[in-house]
Amino acid sequence: EPEVTQTPSHQVTQMGQEVILRCVPISNHLYFYWYRQILGQKVEFLVSFYNNEISEKSEIFDDQFSVERPDGSNFTLKIRSTKLEDSAMYFCASSEGTAYNQPQHFGDGTRLSIL
Amino acid sequence: DQQVKQNSPSLSVQEGRISILNCDYTNSMFDYFLWYKKYPAEGPTFLISISSIKDKNEDGRFTVFLNKSAKHLSLHIVPSQPGDSAVYFCAAPTTDSWGKLQFGAGTQVVVTP
Questions:
Q1: Is B52 within 8 Å of B66 (Cβ atoms)?
Q2: A 36-95 residues with CB below 8 A of B?
Q3: N or C: which end of chain A has fewer CB within 10 A?
């Protein structure tokens, strides 16, 4: 069964450094997302992406965050200057259609630890 | 902004018995609901969904029931197996966007032999 794959599985970074989290969505999917889960908290939406542009972003997704689909297969999340509070599990997801009628499929996540 | 609520943080059930997980929502405009299962160190795995035009959807051992008037849905797992031990999330897409899922806090299910 096709899967969403994410790399790396764990990233340790010094505060203030840039980090890029990578995702390969399911190949025929058109809609892409990033979510995060801080330890002990709910899974929360960061951003959705369709047709090579951001469709929606949450309050968390400030100017330090950006997403890109540099080629036909990868989908990346960049955090320009990491903060301690960015420590979380980051999940990439993709779907064939919109969230109103098609399930989003998630990768196994990248654990981001900011020191 | 607690639009999707799972009020039971944990559930323990014996192998072979029924597991019933509950989820409440506050926004009557929600019309599509999903259940995800999550093992430690893995991402949420889609389990089953239901559209608001139905009140029941079944897939093997998993059945989701939707009670729109009560703004309540439940997931039944019959029979429960040890491999079902995981965290279960209910989720719904928000009405103001096409892509944003709102998740409940999750229910940790432990299936005991």
A1: yes
A2: 42-45, 48, 50, 55-56, 58, 91, 93, 95
A3: N
